[in-house]
Amino acid sequence: MPAQPAKPAKPAKPAKPSRSRTATHPRRRGTNPWVPNQHGAWAMLLLPTLTGIAAAHTLTTVPIAIAWVIGYFCFFAAGLWLKARNAKRKAEYFRPMAVYGAIAALAALAAVIMQPTLLWWACAFAPLVMVAVVETWRRRPRSLASGTSTTIASALMFPVMLSTSPGALTPEGWFATAVMAAYFTGTIFYVKTMIREKGNATFYRESVGFHALACIVAVAGWLLPVSFATATLSALVLSLALVRAALVPKHEKTQAWSPKQVGLWELPLCLGVAAVALLA
Length: 280
Description:
Elements: H1 21-24, H2 41-56, H3 61-83, H4 87-114, H5 122-137, H6 144-162, H7 171-194, H8 201-219, H9 228-252, H10 259-264, H11 267-279
């Protein structure tokens, strides 16, 4: 019986092109420890500092500002370092923490050498920084306690700057500080109602309630040794903040707002707070 011819081999199927994870789904990079990514913190960080520099007109404010801003960079890197679970990540985050910490410490030392009485401010800042550090260590960096402590610390930078100029820190300056603290603390509540606590009726009521209390701070300006212009502008700014805290989250249910939009719409109120500080 003749042998049957062998069947021709089937042509091999062309290999499917491998889909690189990098090409289609790029690997998500970790947070850059050298550059803080909390963009909403910049207004809170800089507004009291810059208005304080403008009002004080002293050279001592320069190293204070450097220590404050670079200190924030150090705190951001330290937060990442505290949350890191493996040695490689901790080593990656330790370097910016150490570099920024050294720069901030040198700037603070220079400021104290120029004006030793600045050391008294450590009594006010130490407990506030401690609260923020503990909350970060507990992995709750965005808690109300952490946010409130940092906003109060930021507002205090205004009287710190004024204290470098003899006679500049007046009751009106303290009033402007209270307005700053009330406004920026209110933004913590407001932003949460727009993003993390969106739809939470209880938190919404707490936010509106806090903003109503903040308005009382402004109204008190007419009863204190504060100029009519400062008191009136403060009342206007904090009243507008109350209106937006009450109305915008309700409107957001029908039209979603991005974090960027929320931040941009805060600019007019920030400018109003800056004007209050410059009038003080």
